[in-house]
Amino acid sequence: MSHVAYELGTQPACWERAAELAPARRAVLPQPGERTAIIGCGTSYYMAQAAAVLREEAGAGETDAFAASEFPRHRRYDRVVALTRSGTTTEVLDLLARLRDAGVPTTAVVGDPATPVMTLADELVVLDFADEQSVVQTRFATTALTLLRAHVGLHTASVVADARTALAEPLPAELEGRGQFTFLGRGWSVGLAHEAALKMREASLSWAESYPAMEYRHGPISISGPGTVTWSLGDAPDGLAEQVRATGSHWVAGRLDPLAELVRVHRLALAVAAHQQLDPDAPRHLTRSVILTTGEEAVR
To answer: Domain named SIS: which ranges (predicted)?
Structure first.
């Protein structure tokens, strides 16, 4: 069994532990009314997008999400939360150092605290039970999102039950041989759709795209046709399923909580990788953490 296969299967247990941890870490997470930014890179950035929408939906305060490299220096926030599995990603560490110098309170949600992030963030929330050996993130990302979701009161036991269902049920038939995948979301699940597409690219080298569901009609639907898959993470807009099916694309309706639906996509990514005889623990051109050299930083 690959590292990533084992780790994605442990997600329900990790989510339960994160939900239990959230009350104890309440004081170092964004307080009601605080103007907050959540930052990350890659998968963590997409989790930040989902968490930002959830926090605003809960009425907890204005919340933005940024890739760490694109944080707007001119904006002021009451707190910045950094999501970083490794605690070593260059862009995250650079931003935390700048925020420290500017006196902006920061909290890092991290898998491994024995890394440079521990000296740069004001506060740490350690999810070492969700850390991973794999390059491809699954359980750390979804566990970090569960922590933030529970913090604003939007996590329930039914989410964990749906995740167990996502692990146990057969995948939709005949998807392993498809050549192109599109993932759609609405609200907080737009970030999850972006993450679903990233997983398909990383683990299986598939052509994968992602869009807000209502935007799909505004051009992207033209790529749909026989041999493609269109997957909705959460409820789809009225009539969209029929329009997609009319193109010949295989439509997958998200029946579970969108975060649990992402677990199904994790499984699909591994199934497609196996079909392509790829090793999901050795994704092409990727490392567990992106650490830039001085020369690379100069070129950015």
So the answer is: 26-164
Q: State pLDDT tens for residues 116-142.
A: 999 999 999 999 999 998 888 999 999
Helix intervals (H) in 70-204 = 90-102, 117-120, 139-151, 157-168, 189-204
In total, the chain counts a number of residues equal to: 300
φ and ψ of 129, to 5 deg: -70, -15
Structure tokens at 225: 């046709």
Cα gap 190→47, rounded to integer Å: 10
If pLDDT is split at 50, 70 and 90, which confidence band does 293 have?
Answer: low
Give the global pTM: 0.93
256 vs 161: CA distance, rounded Å: 9
CB 129 within 8 Å of CB 35: no
5 SS3 class:
helix
